[in-house]
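Dear H.,

Thanks for agreeing to be a second pair of eyes. The structure we're designing against is below in token form, covering all 395 positions.
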């Protein structure tokens, strides 16, 4: 909603100015919207004019954060019937994802650098954005992409044939569909990449890991070149590519999680899912301490997004308890599993299979904790008795 409201306002400001003023207008608009913590009172700039000429009074020259925010709130209220807070920029908005969305919607190309939204002593800039940061303004065109229905129907027929038990014929149909995609769309096209990815998932589920990884790598390369390295489709394919080889998969996951944070910020459900996946991969590598950190971060994320008593949060506690048990910290694992059990019994009830499964693990962890206490107590008694019996002599 904020992106669409900002688009309407900025288009109106750009419509009345000549092209030489465009970088100054865009940078000032972004400073008023996103750079108020860096500079609460940004001043508009104008291009250097010929000596003796007067500077015309365009609308963006009178724009301030105090006038821009009410305009955005009014447009959102009129168009979406939704009322947002007055201080929404600092309380409800993730600034980097919002900046990305505004640039994509309006065709703004920014200089590739780190933009600071909070004032730093080392930064000599007066504002977050300056006119030199605006590299270009390109048109955005909406169009209906034509689809090759025969290629898609062939692919669906291949999946249906495999489901009916004829694997060889099904694979042949799917590969024919891939050839049709490559001939009609070309190799570098999102539709071809989706076909690569679908084939990769099929071969992965049928344990042809090397073939699956090869197709998935092709899907990642094509989507990064056609949709951008930070596009949602490319990041999703990177997540799917993190299979088979654990160490290489962790590098793919790290790369994907970085761009996911750029696109959506830290608090996102898919970010928690990625943390779970990384935790499981670290468990496979016997790095139990490292896996606990990712499971804890996923649990915190889900608890903030979904609330304390939600089955997603309960599942995060359950996975965290398993990770702690693998690491040998049975006391902490018992506390985490108790939280999961309390959540499941409130959400599902005591007779639900998910609650029963958690109850079984809770009983096992309780038994292990009691056994550890008894073992520790026994060792302590043995040590104490041996010290009492031993005679100490002075040298």
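And this is the sequence the design step returned. I haven't edited it by hand at all.
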């Amino acid at each position: 909603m904020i992106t669409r409201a900002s688009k309407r306002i900025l288009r109106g400001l750009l419509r009345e100015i000549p092209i030489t003023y465009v970088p100054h207008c865009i940078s000032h608009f972004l400073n008023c919207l996103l750079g108020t913590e860096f500079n609460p009172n940004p001043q508009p700039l104008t291009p250097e004019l010929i000596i003796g000429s007067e500077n015309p009074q365009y609308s963006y020259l009178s724009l301030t954060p105090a006038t821009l925010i009410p305009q955005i709130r009014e447009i959102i209220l009129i168009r979406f019937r939704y009322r947002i807070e007055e201080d929404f920029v600092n309380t409800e908005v993730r600034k980097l994802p919002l900046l990305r969305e505004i640039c994509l919607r309006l065709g703004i190309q920014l200089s590739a650098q780190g933009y600071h939204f909070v004032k730093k002593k080392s930064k000599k800039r007066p504002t977050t954005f300056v006119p030199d940061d605006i590299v270009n303004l390109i048109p955005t065109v909406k169009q209906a992409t034509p689809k090759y229905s025969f290629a898609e129907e062939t692919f669906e027929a291949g999946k249906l044939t495999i489901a009916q038990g004829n694997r060889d014929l099904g694979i042949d149909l799917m590969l024919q569909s891939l050839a049709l995609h490559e001939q009609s769309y070309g190799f570098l096209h999102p539709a071809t990449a989706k076909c690569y990815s679908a084939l990769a998932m099929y071969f992965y589920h049928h344990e042809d890991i090397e073939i699956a990884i090869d197709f998935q790598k092709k899907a990642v390369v094509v989507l990064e070149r056609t949709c951008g390295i930070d596009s949602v489709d490319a990041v999703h394919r990177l997540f799917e590519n993190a299979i088979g080889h654990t160490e290489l998969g962790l590098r793919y996951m790290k790369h994907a999680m970085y761009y996911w944070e750029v696109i959506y910020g830290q608090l996102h459900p898919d970010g928690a899912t990625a943390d779970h996946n990384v935790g499981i991969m670290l468990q496979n590598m016997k790095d139990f301490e490292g896996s606990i950190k990712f499971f804890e971060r996923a649990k915190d994320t889900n608890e903030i997004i979904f609330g304390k008593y939600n089955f997603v949060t309960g599942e995060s506690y359950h996975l965290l308890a398993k990770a702690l048990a693998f690491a040998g910290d049975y006391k902490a694992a018992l506390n985490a599993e108790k939280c999961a059990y309390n959540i499941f019994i409130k959400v599902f009830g005591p007779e639900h299979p998910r609650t029963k499964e958690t109850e079984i693990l809770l009983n096992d962890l309780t038994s292990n904790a009691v056994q550890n206490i008894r073992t520790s107590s026994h060792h302590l008694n043995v040590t104490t008795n041996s010290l009492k019996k031993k005679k100490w002599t002075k040298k």
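Two observations from my side: Residues 2-137 form one domain. DSSP finds 16 helices and two strands in the chain.

Warmly,
E.
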